[in-house]
Design goal:
Elements: E1 7-11, H1 18-27, E2 31-36, E3 54-58, H2 64-71, E4 76-79, H3 86-91, H4 93-110, E5 116-122, E6 134-135, H5 146-159, E7 164-169, E8 171-173, H6 184-194, E9 197-200, E10 206-211, H7 212-224, H8 226-229, E11 233-236, E12 242-244, H9 245-255, E13 260-263, E14 276-277, H10 280-283, H11 293-303
Parallel strand pairs: 1-2, 1-4, 2-3, 4-5, 5-7, 6-14, 7-11, 8-10, 9-13
Antiparallel strand pairs: 10-12
Helix pairs in contact: 1-7, 2-4, 4-5, 6-9
Length: about 325
Amino acid sequence: MSNALRHILITGGSGYIGSILTRTLLSEGFKVTVLDNFMYNQTSLLNCLEFETFEVVRGDCRDEQLVSELIKDADVVIPLAALVGAPLCDEDPLAARTINVEAVRSICRLLSPAQQLLFPVTNSGYGIGEKGVFCTEDSPLRPISLYGQTKVEAEKVVLERENSISFRLATAFGISPRMRLDLLVNDFVWRAVTDRSVTIFEGHFKRNYIHVRDVAGVFLHGIQNMESMRGKPYNVGLEDTNISKLELCTEIQKLVPSFVFLEAPIGEDPDKRDYIVSNQRILQTGFNPQWSLQEGIQELVKGYRILRNNLYSNV
């Protein structure tokens, strides 16, 4: 089936990832319908209105009657709608469960076996890893935040149906029409450009990273290779970028020489994630990220010449 004949439903399609993914899929010839409640009053899909194959519906992903109507015409469903990040989930635990888990469970129940489902998960589900040991898709999941717990629970539901893929995404970075400054790389570069300094807690903690455009790219890759990839989770990150917060700051300093960073001798980071990740499974399917960390930092530095306020975060 050609792309032009395939219809994709994206819930939460106006968010940080969704606003990039929606236009990517439209540009590839797919018909795309976005369901979103526009909770941040974002206008990030205005650049998609030129496509006749684009439809947008304002509504709640927990509205089962609405979702069931939209699903009827979809070949592929991508549930991006979520309360994303530990602080946001902690603010409203009930919404975190109903949006991040129950809405996904409802979608899985409504889908026919022939309909495809691609689902984003955070690789923060690995929690605190063993020092020097790479987390693979077979590593135990030990989420340490409510956000991580909800995504891990939803992934289990998704992978119980045959025609599904889950992507365990590394910490995303880069410019998006629905910008977020509360993501680690985006935040540190913002501080480097605007404040010229940052104080780091537990700077040795490591994690993996991936550019938001490569996140969109892996969803396209999954749609195009569903037959060979379905039924499995895939880590998605830069294989050469399992780095600590201090190492990240050093990379930023290469492009912003005036940036000064200090590690606090006491105090704790409320985000306890500390792990390194293997992305070999997704690489073996033929997917290759196009954006390096350095290219993303350079993009952010340019972007922050435009963005002059701190409204772009989830909390």
